Each structure stands twice: as C-alpha cells, then as structure tokens.
Amino acid sequence: MASKSKAKGNRFEYLIRDITKGIGLKCIRAWGSDGRSLGWHEEVDLLIEDTIKVQAKCRKAIANWMLPSDEVDIQVIKEDRGTPLVVENYDTWIDRIKELKELKEQLKIIDLK
C-alpha cells in the first residue's frame, strides 16, 4: 500500500489530469509518477499536449507570500540569485494554454502562404 503522502500526490496528479482533459486538452499522467515511462526525465509527472512537462507538488500549506492576492493576475517570485517564477491559478493558466492552442489551429486554417 502506498504511503499517505504518495497517495495524496497521486490524487493531485489525477486532479490536474482531469481538469486539463475536462477543457479538451490532451494530458497524460506518467505511470508511477515517473516521466521515464513517457520518454522524459523521471521528474515529469504529467505531459500536456505532448509538449508541456509538468511536475505536480502538493503540500499541506504554501507560504502566504507566494500566493497571488485577489487584486493581481499572477505573483512573480524569486530567490536570491535565482530565476523568476510565476504563480498563477491553475484554472486560469490552463485556460490560457487552451486559448493558445485554438489560436494556433486558427492560424493553420488561414494559410499564411
């Protein structure tokens, strides 16, 4: 039987997969949360639209300073000498990915040649 934290992580990965598939995007969960089963690095948990590699992390609590307030769209965070990271509501982010996919498909139809 999987540990409680492993089971919690699995549930979170399935939730992300289900949200993503629910809006019509392709999303595959790596077997055993091991990206090597999909041909990627072992840290990859999910693959969206064959190109977006996702590692899903679920914690009991996230530091309040990391969370975007209701007054902003995204929170950009960075550690000293680190790379800036974006924190955004997953539903908003996945909707943006869907919009980009639809725009890309529309541009193919227009045939810019």
Give an account of the 3D structure.
- By secondary structure, the chain is an alpha+beta fold.
- It has one domain (4-110).
- The protein is built from 2 helices and 5 strands.
- The strands form 2 sheets. A 3-stranded antiparallel sheet has the order 1-2-3, with helices on one face. It has a two-stranded antiparallel ribbon with strand order 4-5.
- The model has no long low-confidence stretch (mean pLDDT 92).
Give the neighbour order of strands across the main sheet. 1-2-3
Helix-strand pattern, N to C?
Answer: HEEEEEH
Structural class: alpha+beta
Task: Round the mean pLDDT to the nearest integer and report it.
Answer: 92
Instruction: Count all strands and give the number.
Output: 5
**Into which percentage range does the β-strand content fall?**
5-15%
Query: Helical stretch count?
Result: 2
State the separation between the terminal residues, measured CA to CA: 57 Å
Q: Strand count, sense and closure of the main sheet?
A: 3 strands, antiparallel
Helix content: 25-40%
Q: Supply Rg.
A: 17 Å
Notable features of this structure?
three-stranded antiparallel β-sheet, 35% helix, two-stranded antiparallel sheet, globular, alpha+beta, 13% strand, 113 residues
